[in-house]
Design a protein that fits this description.
Blueprint lengths: L19 E4 L6 E4 L5 H14 L12 H10 L2 H17 L4 H6 L1 E5 L5 H7 L4 E6 L2 H10 L4 E4 L10 E6 L13 H18 E12 L7 E7 L3 E10 L2 E12 L2 E12 L3 H10 L3 E5 L1 E2 L2 E2 L4 E7 L3
Parallel strand pairs: 3-4, 3-6, 4-5, 6-7
Antiparallel strand pairs: 1-2, 2-11, 7-15, 8-9, 9-10, 10-11, 12-15, 13-14
Helix pairs in contact: 2-6, 3-5
Length: 307
């Protein structure tokens, strides 16, 4: 998923449960008990319609327990495909002997369920991952035990000396719950400046960003797996894209429904290039990471600290 690569793929699923509802006190998710098959889709879409009329609680949590699980289970393909391309970019800045890899710390923001970190740490890199979601950090520690993970954001997390900083999945676009657009812009510029100071000479800052909402708005796309289903909508208002995401997940024989709203700030590439250059980077904007193209509306920034 863009961090959230919710596509329009529609598929059948095998969830079995019922119609009485209550709330999970730990997750604040809605619980549905009892037996039904295809009726789950009708219930799911009914909940979606209620939510659109403002009658369902909107969680302020980003990637809570259920969405983190769904993201990791069903939307990790982008991270799997980009792992080898990231290694090629790192190899372009220095020979990658085993000793060099052990010394070359890679910091990953938006580390998600740990798919990228697992690939990099499995090839000898010292990976330090940060995510704003505690649920994602828990999954990442299970997925990539050789890497280290903590809850943190690119806006506030101190940056140790490193050889590369990665933030894939539109991490730089995500607005916090209370962050205004100007405040987010200032925080991003400060992050670029801190990254330039933390990186070793020749070090790499690699991230993707959403620059256009064209082809990225939709009313109700659905996707499902063996024990989960998801419906998402996205609407644009100027430079802000808002995603509304409802998940349904089978947990201990029950269906659990939860909903999140994510806001992302669109950035024209000229603004990203200007901010990176002010921070002292050499910058190239691309439409792919090696052989992996990004989705429509996104671009890749490959920024290097001069040697």
């Amino acid at each position: 998923m863009s961090r959230n690569r919710m596509g329009s793929v529609r598929s059948r699923h095998s969830l079995h449960c019922c119609a009485s509802r209550h709330r999970d006190r730990r997750t604040n998710a809605r619980i549905v008990d009892g037996p039904h098959d295809d009726k789950i889709v009708a219930d799911f879409l009914a909940l979606y319609r209620l939510r659109r009329r403002g009658r369902t609680l909107v969680s302020r949590m980003i990637y809570g327990v259920d969405l983190a699980y769904v993201h990791h289970a069903g939307f990790s393909d982008y991270a799997r495909r980009t792992g080898p391309e990231i290694v090629r970019l790192l190899a372009a800045q220095q020979p990658l002997s085993e000793m060099v890899r052990r010394r070359s710390r890679v910091i990953e923001f938006g580390s998600g369920g740990g798919t990228t970190a697992r690939y990099l740490s499995g090839r000898g890199f010292d990976v330090l991952g940060f995510d704003v979601s505690a649920a994602m950090v828990t999954l990442a520690r299970q997925t990539a035990p050789r890497a280290r993970f903590s809850v943190g954001s690119l806006a506030t997390t101190p940056l140790p000396r490193c050889g590369a900083i990665i933030a894939l999945g539109e991490v730089v676009n995500y607005l916090g719950d209370h962050r205004t657009t100007p405040a987010h812009d200032r925080a991003l510029c400060r992050f670029f400046a801190r990254a330039a100071r933390a990186l070793e000479p020749g070090g790499l800052l690699l991230f993707d960003f959403m620059e256009s909402a064209r082809h990225r708005t939709f009313n109700a796309n659905t996707r499902s797996g063996n024990d989960w289903a998801i419906v998402a909508s996205a609407r644009a208002d100027g430079a802000i894209l808002t995603r509304s995401i409802t998940t349904i997940r089978q947990v201990n024989g029950r269906l659990r429904l939860s909903q999140e709203t994510h806001r992302v700030r669109l950035y024209p590439r000229r603004a990203i290039v200007a901010a990176l250059r002010r921070a002292g980077f050499r910058v190239a904007i691309r439409r792919s990471i090696g052989r992996v193209r990004v989705i429509r509306g996104d671009a890749i920034a490959v920024a290097r600290r001069p040697s």
